[in-house]
From TrEMBL, chains A, B:
It catalyses: a quinone + NADH + H(+) = a quinol + NAD(+). Its EC number is 1.6.5.9. This is NADH:ubiquinone reductase (non-electrogenic). It comes from Hypericibacter adhaerens. The keyword Membrane applies.
Length: 445, 445
């Protein structure tokens, strides 16, 4: 492969050498990491004992365990259960500092990152791991109506919408208005959409059932709209079938082969084999499609359709081996020639790989290309319902659900969070009470 | 006392009779309760088994345990730990319904409450328990600079300010700017101010100590500004002295006999016996002075200087015995002739009293005037530091602190919250980790 060959032919020490700028701490190799998600943090941690200077820059002060974010949206967990201050995670890593700031651009000549507040952060190696946002396929005007779920504020906003819809339905006097308020449409039946739909169905049918007087929350309609012909297209066929059965059991209505053609206050319009139709729905949640962070723009190069930056098999730029792009922001081809999916394990493995690559380069050694090891795919659907594809085995139902829970608690950062999430789940499991049903924030949407 | 005599001479059944409007459920006596704080909820619960129809109206969907709100502001607890959906609390109370809505006014002739969305809620008896907001003594322009602490969104906003101040100090290049960012001024040394100051000092000096590289959070200055000559003026003198010692031990600077004369972005100006001076401070928190909810305006009567509505010894209006005002919104004189303080136990006892009053009146019986039983005053200052005045005994230090913790956990509504708060505290106590250090919300103040 050409880019790899090119890279390997450069002297490794030049690709990663210190250079003309010296920092306060002297001439140690400066690794700047943009983004403290799974990829960025795993890179930072893999550099813990190394003789380099690590700077982690993030817009937020916390690392977010995104796989459980939907549980904040459906009021099952509190934000603090799934987020940990980046500083706490790195507090004992003496060679790392954390800066809160918004990236505006990268000066590749001067080897500096520009922040929105005017600061310039010099680097010798740069790791871009700034993730992705939800995307609306050219319909950004849908965002206010159909929010996506990537950040904590997205999740508490969606929680507010969901809970307010029930509150307003309780007060509605017209039957039509009540029906619209009790219709929830989730767009996209990937893992996030499926998880949201299942959890929302349980919220309505169990946790809220006894709370209202004028409405019966069990009558809420939960629609899961998917353009493909089956949910969870990243899973094998027969697990999609299992997921479909489990969703039906929870009362979720699956609309397959259905494209969303319009989103507005009143509801959504979909198009499927039966033609176009409008479904009145007060709450629409977007779980379809993502767009990479604007890293391509910062780096002054062209991204692919989803905004991702194409990288070499060593995860750096073909023409600039000291700049690495990983995680959801990178377009990295897997062994099968297809792009690796935007999931946490890919980002984590890439972060570790890049850290090791840099250290080997500093020691004058070259590295093998990155190879992703896929431990499997997991999605939960509801109480004792999940699907798991581990490659060498597939599971569904209770066993997959327990496995899903175990894996997620295991990978949560912070022992405190593990304990508190486990307790919240046990509590919810035995008592059908969800813990965080607060309508916060002050807007009236 | 005149109003009481007047009231007692009215036939009790007329004070609480049904009347011209009949509700959907027939002719049961309709009790409408405005506000689901301590007062409103205790009234609702005391009516649980009674043959009346209870409607609880609140702007929020949750009951908030305000005595622990400062812990959300200093990132010790999550909002969901101290708030419970009102519907959950009343879910098994068949005669109660909950409406989320903003009160606009009361039509005393038609006996209806107007809500902002145009709904009108008829009542036979009305209990106004809508609490208080912080007040700025005619300087409302200070609010954006010096936020108060009454609601969850206030607390998460203050949490954001506090944590952002440390983040910005870490990045500051000028010494002056860093000093200002690391100066926190709390105005008002009542229980809330003292608790905030103590907890903030511990956050800076313990929990955050190892998290930063460019600054030492232990150098943060925490100022507690109080116009009186001692903190905790509602406590006996010698407990104020103990509190002062404990605050000093935590490194809090007490500025006594100091009036705030200006609040702005850059800091606060205070005036004391040494004259006026300006203290640069990036974070100012307002814990002085409250203003009752606009109940007087809704009822078309004059409130006192703090907006409170004067009530008879039976807690109703002199000229309208079917309208009760309780809690922070009521001006109710205690046995000593002074107004009862705006604390949870007063509101709770008043709520229970009014419920019993209404039921007795419906049965044709009169009630004795309300009498407040004071179980004591509590304030915590920090780790193993608190003061308690139980009347028959006074405590300070570790014993008072344990007592404070026990009482607060006991009175939290919801077993789940008790468990989770207890666990959070044990965790923080043994590990000096605080659990909810998230900067959320999207504004940049």
């Amino acid at each position: 492969m050409a880019p790899e060959a090119t890279l390997d032919r450069r002297p490794a020490s030049s690709a990663a050498s210190g250079g003309d700028r010296s920092s306060a701490a002297g001439s140690r190799h400066r690794v700047v990491i943009l983004g403290a998600g799974f990829g960025g943090l795993s890179a930072a941690k893999a550099l813990a004992k190394a003789p380099v200077e690590v700077t982690v820059i993030d817009r937020r002060n916390y690392h977010l365990f995104q796989p459980l974010l939907y549980q904040v949206a459906i009021a099952g967990l509190s934000p603090a259960d799934i987020a940990v201050p980046i500083r706490s995670i790195l507090r004992h890593q003496a060679n790392a500092r954390v800066l809160m700031g918004e990236v505006e651009g990268v000066d590749r000549q001067a080897r500096e990152v520009f922040l929105a507040d005017g600061r310039r952060i010099p680097f010798d190696s740069l790791i871009v791991a700034t993730g992705a946002r939800h995307a609306y396929f050219g319909h950004d005007e849908w965002e206010p109506v159909a929010p996506g779920l990537k950040q904590i504020d997205d999740a508490t906003g969606i929680r507010r919408r969901i809970l307010l819809a029930f509150e307003r339905a309780e007060m509605a006097t017209a039957e039509k208005a009540r029906e619209r308020l009790l219709t929830f449409a989730i767009v996209g039946a990937g893992p996030t959409g499926v998880e949201l739909a299942g959890a929302l169905a349980e919220l309505a049918k169990k946790a809220l059932a006894a709370d209202f007087r004028a409405i019966d929350p069990r009558e809420a309609r939960i629609l899961l709209v998917e353009a493909a012909e089956r949910p969870l297209t990243s899973f094998p066929d027969h697990l999609s079938v299992k997921a479909t059965t489990q969703l039906h059991k929870l009362g979720v209505e699956l609309l397959l082969g259905a494209k969303v053609t319009r989103c507005e206050e009143a509801g959504i319009e979909i198009e499927d084999s039966r033609g176009r139709r409008f479904i009145p729905a007060a709450t629409v949640i977007w779980a379809a499609g993502v767009q990479a962070s604007p890293a391509a723009r910062w780096l002054g190069i062209a991204g692919d359709r989803a905004g991702r930056v194409a990288v070499t098999p060593h995860l750096n730029l073909p023409d600039d081996p000291r700049i690495f792009v990983i995680g959801d922001t990178a377009l990295c081809l897997g062994a099968n020639g297809k792009p690796l999916p935007g999931v946490a394990p890919v980002a984590k493995q890439q972060g570790g790989y890049v850290a090791r690559y840099i250290l080997r380069a500093l020691a004058g050694r070259s590295s093998k290309p990155f190879a992703y090891f896929n431990y499997g795919n997991l999605a939960t659907i509801g109480r004792r319902a999940a699907v798991a594809d581990l490659g060498w085995m597939q599971m569904s139902g209770t066993l997959a659900w327990l496995f899903w829970g175990g894996v997620h608690i295991f990978f949560l950062i912070g022992f405190r969070n593990r304990i508190f999430v486990l307790l919240s789940w046990l509590w919810a499991y035995f008592l059908f009470h969800s813990g965080a049903r607060l309508i916060t924030g002050d807007d009236n949407d």
